[in-house]
Specification:
tRNA pseudouridine synthase A, EC 5.4.99.12, 2 domains, about 20% helix, 10 strands, 10-stranded mixed beta sheet, about 260 residues, Alpha-Beta Plaits, alpha+beta, RNA binding, globular, 5 helices
């Protein structure tokens, strides 16, 4: 048996998340179907994380065990020929049988993208949240720093989060600001990207952090309130859950 590790990207707009769900399309189901077409096997495909409905991935990592003798460097071409065009396998390699995409991961980075211009960018409308109103980017930069470190993130996760412990470590949180390509003269703050790198994330945690930072940018919350919101462990004090389509799983890191 061989363990195949792959890095994939996808536009999650038309899927009900990564995980298989009865009667609706999912990324995992599409991969299982494509692998079966090549090998005749119903593979157990493991992902590094379960992205929600409408959420995207730039570099999701998956693995599956197979008896197929197809060389590792042929898997990308073989699968891409059978997958929908909004799912792309762009790296494949053989891994030790002990490797597991989720259990072996050490750090994950998510990115939430906001188009802060008055008018939307039609070429990226499926992968970024359009916010036409004014945003105080300096206040958002100040606020995001408070989310770094080890904290109990109860205030920043859905009440449906199943994890018993809500303590997580955010190694790095940063905001980048660039012009929207081709719309450099448009009114607004351009494209904002919120990057969060951590050892794990709770259900809706990144989207709630993004929604809270947007509330700071709108003046509805103050940056200095973030530590108090963390300490309170009260979901009602944080900002709204940001829309799913602005979120992408950006990268997953493993020990060498």
């Amino acid at each position: 048996m061989r363990n195949i590790r792959m890095t994939i990207g996808y536009d999650g707009t038309d899927y009900h998340g990564f995980q298989v769900q009865p009667g609706v399309p999912s990324i995992q189901a599409a991969l299982i179907e494509a692998i079966a077409a090549i090998t005749g096997e119903t593979a157990a495909v493991h992902g590094s994380g379960r992205t929600d409905a409408g959420v995207h991935a730039r570099a999701q990592v998956v693995n599956f065990v197979t008896s197929s003798r197809l060389p590792a460097d042929r898997w990308c071409q073989a699968l891409n020929a059978r997958l929908p065009n909004d799912i792309v396998v762009w790296k494949a390699e053989e891994a030790p049988l002990t490797f597991h995409a989720r259990k072996s991961s050490k750090r994950k980075t998510y990115c939430y993208t906001i188009n802060g211009n008055r008018y939307p960018d039609p070429l990226n409308r499926r992968t970024e949240f359009h916010h036409p109103g004014s945003l105080d980017v300096s206040a958002m930069r100040e606020a995001i720093r408070h989310l770094e470190g080890e904290h109990d993130f109860t205030s920043f996760c859905s009440v449906r989060a199943a994890s018993e412990s809500k303590v997580r470590t955010v190694y790095e949180a940063q905001l980048t600001q660039t012009a929207v390509e081709g719309m450099e003269s448009a009114t607004g703050v351009g494209r904002l990207r919120l990057f969060f790198t951590g050892n794990g994330f709770l259900y809706n945690m990144v989207r709630i952090m993004a929604g809270t930072l947007l509330a700071v940018g709108e003046g509805k919350l103050h940056a200095a309130e973030i530590p108090r919101i963390l300490q309170a462990r009260d979901r009602a004090l944080a900002g709204p859950t940001a829309k799913p389509y602005g979120l992408s799983l950006w990268s997953v890191e493993y020990e060498l």
